[in-house]
């Protein structure tokens, strides 16, 4: 039963991290660039609208579920460190929790909160928006890479 649970959790995590990577990849490769071309007021409004809707969508259960699953896999791998796939479970879970969840909470969410508090047509909005695009996208690249690598490590654990 323990092995079946672990296998199910690894599949959920591999697929969930892959889905998260896809979302982040889309933002990193074309969504943020498109928002940047909209101009500050429209770009800020679009990003703020996404930030409001995303917390009410199926993104949140996936975001939180994969984080909890990743943390559980770190614990499970640590308890069975000598078994095949354990190191991949630990590395994948740790990378995902730190590289996706912690980065989101420490960098992306505060940037989003500052953007939400900004008046889009204010004189300082242009400089804030330019910095936001650069900084938010950089940290989103980190989340993308962490999610892709974690997904691969979970697949490697499944293959062991």
From TrEMBL:
Residues spanning the membrane: 9-38, 58-79, 86-107
The record's annotation in InterPro entries points to:
Anthrone_oxy
What are the UniProt keywords, alphabetically? Answer: Membrane, Transmembrane, Transmembrane helix
| Protein name (database record) | DUF1772 domain-containing protein
């Amino acid at each position: 039963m323990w092995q079946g649970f672990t296998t199910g959790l690894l599949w959920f995590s591999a697929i969930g991290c892959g889905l998260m990577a896809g979302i982040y990849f889309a933002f990193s490769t074309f969504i943020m660039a498109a928002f940047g071309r909209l101009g500050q007021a429209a770009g800020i409004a679009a990003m703020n609208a996404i930030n409001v809707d995303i917390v009410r969508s199926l993104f949140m259960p996936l975001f939180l579920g994969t984080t909890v699953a990743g943390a559980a896999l770190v614990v499970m791998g640590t308890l069975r460190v000598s078994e095949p796939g354990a190191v991949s479970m630990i590395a994948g879970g740790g990378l995902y929790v730190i590289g996706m969840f912690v980065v989101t909470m420490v960098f992306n969410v505060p940037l989003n909160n500052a953007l939400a508090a900004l008046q889009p047509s204010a004189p300082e909005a242009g400089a804030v928006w330019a910095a936001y695009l650069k900084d938010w996208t950089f940290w989103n690249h980190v989340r993308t890479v962490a999610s892709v690598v974690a997904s691969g490590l979970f697949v490697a654990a499944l293959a062991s």
